[in-house]
Amino acid sequence: MSAITPAYRIDDLFADRARKIAPPTYGTELTKIITVSLTYGLADPDLFPQADIAAATTAVLTNTAPAVLNYGPTSPQLYEQLSQRLQTQGIRADRDRLLISYGSAQILGLLPDVFIEPGDVVLIEGPSFLGAVGRFFNAGAKVITIPVDELGLDVDAVEATLIDLKKQGIRPRFIYTIPTFHNPTGSTMPLSRRKKLVALAAEYGVLVVEDDAYGDLRFHGESVPSLASLDEEGWVLYVSTFSKTIAPGVRIGWACGDPAIIERLAMFKSEGPVGPFVSHVIAHYCATGKLDTHIQELIAAYRHKCNLMLDAIAREFPSDVIAVKPDGGFFVWCKLPADMSAKAILTAASEHGVTFLPGTRCYANGQGDDAMRLAFSFQPSEKIVEGIATLGSVLREFRKS
Ligand SMILES: Cc1ncc(COP(=O)(O)O)c(C=O)c1O
Fold this sequence. Notes:
Distance between the termini: 66 Å
Helix content: 40-55%
Bound molecules: pyridoxal-5'-phosphate
Mean pLDDT: 94
Number of helices: 13
Radius of gyration: 22 Å
CATH topology of the largest domain: Aspartate Aminotransferase, domain 2
CATH architecture of the largest domain: 3-Layer(aba) Sandwich
Number of domains: 2
CATH superfamily of the largest domain: Type I PLP-dependent aspartate aminotransferase-like (Major domain)
Strand order of the largest sheet: 2-9-8-7-6-3-4-5
């Protein structure tokens, strides 16, 4: 055996996509203890339906422990419950159109397996939920960013892009959109834009992936039909989750759409179906009928927190920082004046123990330093008020310098 050990490196073994993937950066080195994080869209842990989940767990284990603790299929009752919920929202949800997954993030992660070859074109919103978009990039997609305004995705810009791509002989694989209580802007697409988007999808033969993670959490205004409920020709894949309405730790999400897509997503979901234990517990909880009452409680609580944050912003922020008032969801999006940088403000704010998500973390193309996403969902009321007051003084100081 040679005495010289060759300089082998573990990362030389990585596939190209694993070598290229960048660890997340948050635009600032956090050196201080953070007392108020407004960064992440986390559900309020005080609102988890803990007692009811405990009761459902006991009932499931008492009645069916040997079966649910073994390998096995996802609870057929959960499929049934979900199917009924979706049908009441006008979405076709027969069994062959539904796939239950480990969180909706799993479905978003499977999309590249089914749809993307390196170089394929995908349309996304700018800004968007980078947790999803990053996966399209990692698969080598050519990602085209379409602007979002206070009425959601700019559907006229989608049309212009589709026309342009068609001239080049390019058919995009899908359009990823969050039409209701958008992450990060909080905007909701009106019916007219929704109808046009669904019509464009059919005209150009492009799939629309509708991410409806926050759709149940409307605290102002009238509900607007989902894209999936408007879709008669099968060009919408609807994706949602119980993470915001029950608890993210249960990791239950789903996709609903064309059976051929569902079949392929299931084939790439290589660890198999979502386990019987958690799915039976959630099915049992849903069957008690308590979910809808719980959602009403969540809506009241998040409405209160959102109003608290908006009132504090009106009191504390310079008047040229414009907060977008959401009708639901978890976030307030603030547009900054031209002389302010979200990344620089984050660095200064974190020195005072407050963090938020700079807009740059919501764009795939480096834009977004002119906006901040503030999550009101997670922090208790007094911390929201404290955090906004601190951020307000940072913004005013920033203006002076
Ligand atoms: C828009 C959007 N989609 C999907 C997800 C993923 O949710 P989960 O995987 O917990 O279902 C999130 C989580 O924050 C989100 O904001």
